[in-house]
Write the structure tokens for this entry.
Amino acid sequence: MQIRSTTILSVRRDGQVAVGGDGQVTIGDTAVKHDTVKIRRLYKDHTLVGFAGAAADAFALLERLEKRLEEYKGDLKRAAIELARDWRTDRVLRRLESLLIAADKDCTLIIGGSGDVIEPTDHVAGIGSGGMYAAAAAKALLKHTNLSAREVVEQSLHVAGEICVYSNQNITVETIG
């Protein structure tokens, strides 16, 4: 059975970055868990990471990202590029099925297994089954409200949870700044 789940969203506004995610895990057509936390703080709490995809794979990648952050003294871009390089070239890592959003005070990145390290131009990044729904809601809220980054993430994840059957409204949000 295919495991599907997750809406992860990152928004940056007014010196604050927020990363949030829903809590649902779905196997096939059954929601089997409703309160999973898919957001982690890394490198002395200076980096937020959200993950979509296979949880065991994501944890293996989070561990490697943490090591790279330590190695490069918290330089997220450098650590992400090295992680993506490892992920793409290592035979074992290449099989990992996950996607990450990582953010610190300076940048937000989407990191993928095909070697992708993408920094969104508009400071909004969404991944997972409901990621694009949440990103669309966030872009509208950023354009038409004065909500904080945290509030935009919360509201956008609620919207995605109403639309995407693989997402729910049990939301976790972490912020920096």
About this structure: The chain has one domain: 3-171. Helices lie at 55-71, 76-89, 131-144, 149-163. DSSP finds four helices and twelve strands in the chain. The two ends are 40 Å apart (CA to CA).
